[in-house]
C-alpha cells in the first residue's frame, strides 16, 4: 500500500488539527497539506510544510514589510518582471517540504538536483517493505531507435508478458533472499546495510525533500519535459499541480517565460532580423 497504517493515522491527526498562526498562509497549498497523492503503483507525494507565497516573492523584491495598499495587478507585474529577467533570489524566499515515496531508480535521477535538502529512509536501520515498481503495460516500452537514453513503442504480446513476469519474479526472489539473509531465527543474520545490496533498483524508498521555489521550478522545467523519463515525469506532474495552487501568479509567469518559452541563439536572432527586414535567409558564403 502507498501509506502504512501508522502514516495514515498520523496524516489523519494532522489534517484534523487546526492552529492559529501569525504567519502568512497560502490557501491553495493549505488545502493540500498532508494529502498523499498517489503516483505510480505504490508511490505518493504529500506536502509536509511550506513557507511563503506570491506575496513573499514581492515582499523580498521590494524589501518591504507587507503588501500595504498595492494592487494585486502591480504584484503580478513585478513577479512577471522578475521571472522574465531571471532575477531569481526573490523566488528563493518560498520553500516547500515534500514527503515522497518513489522507486530507487527514480530517486537516483531525482537526487542529481543537488539544490535541495534530503533525508532518505535508512535501509541500514530499518527493513525495506516488499514493494516494487512494476510498469503498467502501456509504459513497458522498447529501446528508442533514435535516442540512446529514451524509450520507443510499447512492447506487445509474448515479449511484454515475459518481461513483466521476469520483473515480478526477480523482484520477489530478491526480496525473499533479503528477508532470509537478515533473519536471526537459527542464524546470526546478515547486517541490513549489507543485505540491501541484493535488492533491485525498482524497490521503493521514501524521503523528505525540502527545496526553495527557484530550484523547484528548475527541477520542474527539466522533469515535466516530454524528454524526461516517464516515471519521474509522473512525480513532477503532481508537484507541478501543487505549485500551481501554492503560487498561482509565479506559476503563470513560469509557464510564460520558462516552461513554454523558446531560447534563441545569436545566429537564430540574426536570421529572424533578416527575415523581418525582408532580406531572406543568409547565404552560406556570407556566413
TrEMBL record:
Q: What is its EC number?
A: 2.1.1.148
Where does the chain bind dUMP? 109-112, 120-124, 196, 223
Catalytic center at which residues?
223 (involved in ionization of n3 of dump, leading to its activation)
Q: Which residues form the signal peptide?
A: none
Ribonucleoprotein found in the keyword field: no
Top-level lineage group = Bacteria
**Membrane-spanning intervals of the chain:** none
Positions that bind FAD: 89, 112-114, 120, 212-214, 218
Q: Which residues form a coiled coil?
A: none
Recite the UniProt keywords alphabetically: FAD, Flavoprotein, Methyltransferase, NADP, Nucleotide biosynthesis, Transferase
Q: Name one GO molecular function term.
A: NADPH binding
Leading EC class = transferase
Give the cofactors, semicolon-separated.
FAD
Q: Catalytic activity, per the record? A: dUMP + (6R)-5,10-methylene-5,6,7,8-tetrahydrofolate + NADPH + H(+) = dTMP + (6S)-5,6,7,8-tetrahydrofolate + NADP(+)
The free-text note explaining how the cofactor binds reads: Binds 4 FAD per tetramer. Each FAD binding site is formed by three monomers.
According to its UniProt entry, the protein's GO biological process terms are:
dTMP biosynthetic process; dTTP biosynthetic process; methylation
| Pathway(s) per entry | Pyrimidine metabolism; dTTP biosynthesis
Q: Which family does it belong to?
A: Belongs to the thymidylate synthase ThyX family.
Q: How does it assemble?
A: Homotetramer.
What is the protein's known function?
Answer: Catalyzes the reductive methylation of 2'-deoxyuridine-5'-monophosphate (dUMP) to 2'-deoxythymidine-5'-monophosphate (dTMP) while utilizing 5,10-methylenetetrahydrofolate (mTHF) as the methyl donor, and NADPH and FADH(2) as the reductant.
State the name under which the record lists this protein: Flavin-dependent thymidylate synthase
Q: What is the lineage of its organism?
A: Bacteria, Pseudomonadati, Pseudomonadota, Alphaproteobacteria, Rhodobacterales
- What is the primary gene name for this protein? thyX
Amino acid at each position: 500500500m502507498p501509506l502504512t497504517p501508522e502514516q495514515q493515522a498520523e496524516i489523519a491527526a494532522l489534517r484534523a488539527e487546526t492552529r492559529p498562526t501569525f504567519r502568512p498562509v497560502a490557501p491553495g497549498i493549505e488545502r493540500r497539506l498532508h494529502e498523499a497523492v498517489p503516483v505510480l503503483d505504490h508511490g505518493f507525494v504529500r506536502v509536509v510544510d511550506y513557507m511563503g507565497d506570491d506575496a513573499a516573492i514581492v515582499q523580498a523584491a521590494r524589501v518591504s514589510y507587507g503588501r500595504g495598499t498595492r494592487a494585486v495587478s502591480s504584484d503580478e507585474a513585478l513577479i512577471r518582471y522578475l521571472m522574465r529577467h531571471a532575477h531569481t533570489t526573490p523566488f528563493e524566499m518560498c520553500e516547500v517540504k515534500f514527503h515522497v515515496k518513489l522507486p530507487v531508480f527514480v530517486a537516483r535521477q531525482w537526487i542529481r538536483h543537488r539544490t535541495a535538502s534530503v533525508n532518505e529512509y535508512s535501509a541500514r536501520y530499518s527493513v525495506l517493505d516488499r514493494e516494487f515498481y512494476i510498469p503498467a503495460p502501456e509504459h513497458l516500452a522498447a529501446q528508442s531507435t533514435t535516442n540512446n537514453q529514451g524509450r520507443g513503442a510499447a512492447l506487445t504480446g509474448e515479449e511484454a508478458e515475459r518481461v513483466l513476469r521476469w520483473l515480478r519474479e526477480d523482484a520477489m526472489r530478491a526480496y525473499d533472499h533479503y528477508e532470509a539473509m537478515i533473519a536471526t531465527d537459527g542464524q546470526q543474520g546478515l547486517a541490513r546495510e549489507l543485505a540491501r545490496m541484493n535488492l533491485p533498483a525498482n524497490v521503493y524508498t521514501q524521503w523528505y525533500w525540502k527545496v526553495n521555489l527557484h530550484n523547484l521550478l528548475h527541477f520542474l522545467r527539466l522533469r515535466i519535459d516530454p524528454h524526461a523519463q516517464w516515471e519521474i515525469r509522473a512525480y513532477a506532474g503532481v508537484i507541478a499541480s501543487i505549485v500551481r495552487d501554492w503560487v498561482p501568479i509565479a506559476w503563470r509567469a513560469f509557464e510564460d517565460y520558462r516552461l513554454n518559452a523558446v531560447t534563441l541563439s545569436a545566429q537564430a536572432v540574426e536570421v529572424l532580423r533578416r527575415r523581418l527586414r525582408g532580406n531572406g535567409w543568409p547565404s552560406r558564403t556570407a556566413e
